[in-house]
Design a protein that fits this description.
The protein is α/β, with parallel strands linked by helices. Helix content is 32%, strand content 26%. The chain is globular.
Length: 505
């Protein structure tokens, strides 16, 4: 049994229902299944042992994902924004790869020697082979289905192995089959190399919801497409939502069909979330927390939780706007201290998770699950009295200043509440006296003239003095990955390099 089961069920349930729209082209479920069989046969004709996808989101991504399953081989969408050297290195780590590539990225794969199919060639050969496809390969549920490379914001990317059983557990444990109305449409703008790019294909096809692709995110185009295609659901990362809110300039979003907006991939600043909730008053917001190693979502903060928190006068309830919610069915979660013992309510520790959708396995390394099947997320978290989980940052992000452990999120959550701060990232930088000093990189609101000392005083009045940033720099934007994760290492390295050059901050 493989993820092909999802397509087989969808095909049996609604063969003529539209399942994917990209530009002017819309495929029905039957047309999509035909393309998958053709594409899977093309991969087998090429002797592929692994399908690599180097292009943006679109129907070809969804086709290639299921085509790899049809051929009985893993599928790897790779970050096309990486440099040539990094792309070459990643592809060379994959044995027996056939690369499906947007022509824009051909130079990056030339040095690998791997067989290449441009998107046009992939479409043409798929259409020809669909007339006489090969039968689907036999696949074991424990065979690798997808290999995704982590973003590598603090270290070299790791290849996460997701097996068919993991992905099927995730989909069937969190989504009701054929639950969508025929008119439902999901607007997809997350890149294919993010775990959500895989998850959205599987979950929407299983639910019977048409996928509408926006390959290159633009807030104006996102709004236009959502309105024009009657999007009923969408998934964004915080940086996308920030750009949408900024584009609206206080006006309502005016997307009457939109019922659900999921967000994830990075911490959502609470002021931004509150503004978005007001701009989209009839939309159900969902915070979907997950990792590549967990086959996507493992905890949810649902629409009712969002609205209840927004309207509550109870600080503990209102604080849940910053929560990732509670674990999805089939997933267990616990917060552990440094000695491995469970943390008390409100006490920070490392978040560990367990369940059938959890992989915790890396290419060339193997599984990092403990003997009882628990996976260490490396996220620092705590739990409130009602079981809501709060992630405060990565363990690697912790700043050790004068022997004191400081969470960047603690300072960020204060600074972002300042009326003249649009966004902020706090990192540690080398310091001879303290070991590490606190650096805050701030993106100010447009047209404001806030000063560093004003912001330092703002933090000092709300937190202990040791939490006050030692340095504040102002930036037009923060460096992020395409999925909204802040590149903290780049901020720190840039600050140190500028200091060494004697530049004025």
């Amino acid at each position: 049994m493989s993820i092909s089961l999802i397509l087989e069920m969808a095909l049996a349930g609604h063969p003529d229902r539209p399942v994917a729209t990209a530009g002017e082209t819309t495929l029905t479920c039957a047309q999509f299944a035909e393309a998958v069989a053709g594409a899977g046969s093309v991969l087998r004709d090429h002797g592929a042992r692994h399908a690599v996808f180097l292009a943006g989101s679109g129907a070809e991504q969804a086709t290639a994902l299921f085509a790899a399953a049809h051929a009985g081989i893993p599928f790897s969408p790779i970050n096309y924004r990486l440099g040539t050297e990094q792309l070459t290195s990643l592809i060379n780590r994959i044995e027996g790869a056939v690369v499906i590539v947007d022509p824009r990225y051909l130079p990056a794969v030339a040095a690998t020697g791997a067989p290449v199919l441009t998107l046009d060639e992939f479409r043409e050969r798929t259409a020809a082979r669909a007339k006489d496809p090969l039968p689907a390969a036999e696949v074991d549920p424990d065979d690798p289905a997808v290999v995704l490379f982590t973003s590598g914001t603090t270290s070299a990317p790791k290849g996460v192995v997701l097996r068919h059983s993991h992905l099927l557990s995730y989909v069937m444990g969190t989504v009701e089959f054929d639950a969508a109305d025929e008119s439902d449409a999901a607007l997809i703008s997350v890149p294919p190399y993010h775990v959500a790019g895989t998850g959205t294909v599987l979950t929407n096809l299983y639910a019977g919801r048409r996928m509408v692709y926006l390959p290159d995110f633009d807030p104006g185009r996102w709004l236009e497409l959502a309105r024009g295609e009657g999007a009923t659901s969408a998934m964004v990362v915080p940086t996308m939502l920030e750009r949408i809110v900024r584009h609206l300039e206080g006006a309502p979003a005016a997307i009457p069909t939109l019922r659900s907006l999921s967000y994830g991939g990075a911490r959502m600043p609470r002021p931004l979330l509150e503004t978005a909730l007001l701009a989209l008053p009839d939309v159900g917001f969902v915070n979907a927390y997950g990792l590549t190693e967990t086959s996507s979502t493992i905890a949810l903060l649902g629409p009712e939780d969002h609205r209840a928190a927004l309207e509550s006068g109870d600080p503990a309830v209102r604080a849940r706007l910053g929560s990732i919610g509670r674990p999805v069915p089939g997933v267990e979660a616990t917060v552990r201290g440094p000695d491995g013992s469970p943390c008390a309510v409100g006490e920070q520790g490392e978040l560990w998770v367990r369940g059938p959708q959890i992989s915790g396995e890396y290419l060339g390394v193997g599984s990092v699950l403990d003997e009882e099947g628990w996976f260490p997320t490396r996220d620092l978290a705590y739990q409130d009295a009602e079981g809501y989980l709060f992630v405060v940052g990565r363990g690697d992000d912790t700043i050790i200043r004068g022997g004191e452990n400081i969470s960047p999120a603690e300072i960020e959550d204060v600074l972002v509440e300042h009326p003249e701060v649009s966004s902020v990232a706090v990192v540690g930088v080398p310091d001879e006296q303290w070991g590490q000093a606190i650096l805050a990189a701030v993106v100010p609101m447009r047209g404001t003239g806030t000063q560093a000392e004003e912001l330092r005083a703002y933090v000092r009045a709300r937190l202990r003095g040791s939490r006050t940033p030692d340095h504040i720099v102002f930036r037009e934007e923060l460096p992020t990955t395409a999925t909204g994760k802040i590149l903290r290492k780049d901020i720190a390295v840039g600050f140190v390099a500028a200091a060494e050059n004697g530049e004025n901050h």
